[in-house]
Amino acid sequence: MKKSLKIIFILLIPFKINLIGQEVITKEIIGEVSFLTTQNIYVKFEDASLLTEGDTIYIKRDGDLLPLLIVKFLSSTSAAGTSIGETEVQTNEKVYAYVKEINIEISEIEPHEITPEKTLGEANESQEIKPALIHQTREKISGRISVQSYTNLSNSDGISDFQRWRYSLSFNAENISDSPLSFNSYIIFAYRADDWANVSSNIGRNLKVYDLAVDYKLSKNFNIKLGRSVNRKISNLGSVDGIQLEYGFGNFFSGLIAGSRPNFSDYGYNAKLFQFGGFFGRTDTTGSGNIENSLGVFQQTNDFKTDRRFLYFQHTNTAIEKTFFMLSTEFDLFKRELGVDKNTFAFTSLFLSARYAPDRIVSFSLSYDARRNVIYYETFKSLVDSVIENHTRQGLRFRTNIRPLNNVMIGLSAGYRFLRADLKPSKNFNASLAYSKIPLIEASSSVFYTYLQSSYLTGSVIGVRLSKYFTNPNIDFSFAYRNTSYEYFGRRFKLTENSFTADCSFLILRPLFLTLSFEGTFQEKRTYSRVLIDLTARI
After folding, report:
1. Are 459 and 486 spatial neighbours (Cβ–Cβ below 8 Å)?
2. Residue 386, CA distances (Å) to 192, 342, 381, 478 in order
3. Collapsed DSSP state (helix, strand, coil) of residue 211
4. What is the spatial distance between Cα 317 and Cα 354, in angstroms, rounded to a whole number?
5. Distance CA 12, CA 203 (A)
6. For the chain, percent helix, then strand, then coil, each to nearest 5?
7. How far apart are CA 32 and CA 347, in angstroms?
8. Where does residue 381 fall: left (phi above 0), alpha (psi -120 to 50 degrees), or beta otherwise?
9. What is the DSSP letter of 115?
């Protein structure tokens, strides 16, 4: 019976642990867009440690919470991933992540575990120890499956009520059965309930596969990956449908890719969008950190005709104690003028980011980005024909976090961004104050303020949030209020709205969560209500 169950779990949802006890924590993490590339979106948080690969990060549009990107890789304070849909986003915009953390006490007895009472010699007498297995990486299984119902209600005649369903599956199996084989996947199926007739006629339009790949480690330094995946060393390239080879030798690493890009319209598979290239880099370890440099050249095609050819360089540096520095840049190597293909070396994008945290009390960060419009000469011919001037967007961002007391956090940030075509630069200022473990009620609270000014609007957002976690039963509850006031210059129109949000998350059965969320937005003549029901199971 145990053998049968193990086979089923390997094929479906492998599960190799005995759960003794667990604690549920639900948190809303608020961050901001820090950098945009041709394929990915980078976001920054004060603390991204609760996020995992495959999580969804959201952005708000007219009070609606819309999925923005799928997390593909993480650091302690930032995340990046593939964008979802066609939502337009700018740097410094607020983003939201909702995470549920399970602290699990695990009890697992291996078939040949050596206890303290049994010496290695005694173990050799009772069983054969295979040296080839001693250095192998152990199997690690993780995953999440969720079902969400999102209902939008409004009293406006011009906006119809609707309900959306969203199913997601994230499953990762590293070193399956202690072998060199690994598997990763992240799949979403979402649709509006009133549009099922169109959805059923073309399921692929609503089924999004963001990650589906197998990885086999041929040796300690050489591995091969097949399927759809994002390579962290060439993250600017986005998802690759095909084969990826990577080889390490000493401090150096190199890799080759060959495959295709996902469709721009529905993120489906399209063999005509063939792409290939390679990268090379070096990692050095210093006394207090690492230095990594990587250089790559890639050619992207459409129907095997050159769509784009570019070079990118990435540098990360933690060699100086308590600092982090990153530089990323791209150069286009191909252009088409009056129907004639030419080689070129044109700057496309530049991103610089630096962070300094001398101690746990205060930290500073500064970023600068400049990005031109990326031109795909085959995919968007009509757009290319209409391009007269390729503007560069430039932005500067400064942020500091101050922790004067253990339970108090103060955040201050300011941003400045401009295009030559803008009537005036865009400016923003953000301030926040968070206090955890309020005496007597043991709750956490935060207040925040944002001021925005751009070519077409000026306004502010102010809000407060209170959250409380109850250990018995495991329930996480939060309540928030937000006031938004925008004045649009062109239309001479002023928007004022008040929003109230209530969230409740609790454990039904280990490890099954239920989250209920309600948000009401009230304008002068219109009201909007949103109800979210989320059922999630984590492995």
Report:
1. yes
2. 35, 19, 9, 49
3. strand
4. 9
5. 22
6. 10, 60, 30
7. 26
8. alpha
9. -
The 3 state secondary structure assigned to 67-98 is EEEEEEEECCCEEEEEECCCCCCCCCCEEEEE
Q: What is the pLDDT of residue 307?
A: 92
How long is the chain?
539
For residue 155, the tally of other CB atoms under 10 A from its CB is: 11
Cα–Cα dist 461/482, whole Å: 7
Stretch (H or E) spanning 463:
strand 457-470
Which residue did the predictor score with more confidence, 46 or 223?
223
Q: Tokens 């995919």 appear where?
A: 379
Which residues touch 292 (CB under 8 Å, ≥6 apart)?
Answer: 281, 282, 283, 284, 314, 315, 316, 317
CB 499 within 8 A of CB 49: no
> Residues 45-83: pLDDT tens digits?
776 766 776 677 878 765 556 778 777 766 656 788 777
Q: What SS3 class is residue 198? A: helix
Q: Name which of 87, 95, 103 is nearest 71 in CA terms.
A: 95
Name the CA dihedral angle for 83, 84, 90, 93, rounded to a multiple of 10 degrees: -110
Q: How far apart are CA 515 and CA 258, in angstroms?
A: 42
Tokens, residue 132: 């080839």
Work out whether strand 340-356 and strand 362-372 pair parallel, antiparallel, or are unpaired.
antiparallel
At 130, which amino acid appears?
K
On whether the CB atoms of residues 284 and 277 are closer than 8 A, the answer is: no
Residue showing tokens 């709750």: 443
Residue type, 140: K
Rounded CA gap, 75 and 70, in Å?
Answer: 15
Give the span between the Cα atoms of 67 and 96, in whole angstroms: 9
pLDDT band at 507 (very low <50, low <70, confident <90, very high): confident
Burial label, 80 (beta-carbon count in 10 A; 0-12, 13-18, 19+): buried
Give the type of residue at 57. I
Q: Counting Cβ atoms within 10 Å, is residue 521 exposed (0-12), middle (13-18) or buried (19+)?
A: buried
**Burial degree of 77 (CB within 10 A; 0-12, 13-18, 19+):** buried
- Single-letter code of the amino acid located at 147: V
- Virtual CA dihedral for 466, 26, 62, 459, nearest 10 degrees? 40
The closest alpha carbon to 52, from 29, 18, 34, 86, belongs to 29
Residue 69 and residue 84 in contact, taking contact as beta carbons nearer than 8 Å: yes
Residue 3 vs residue 472, higher pLDDT? 472
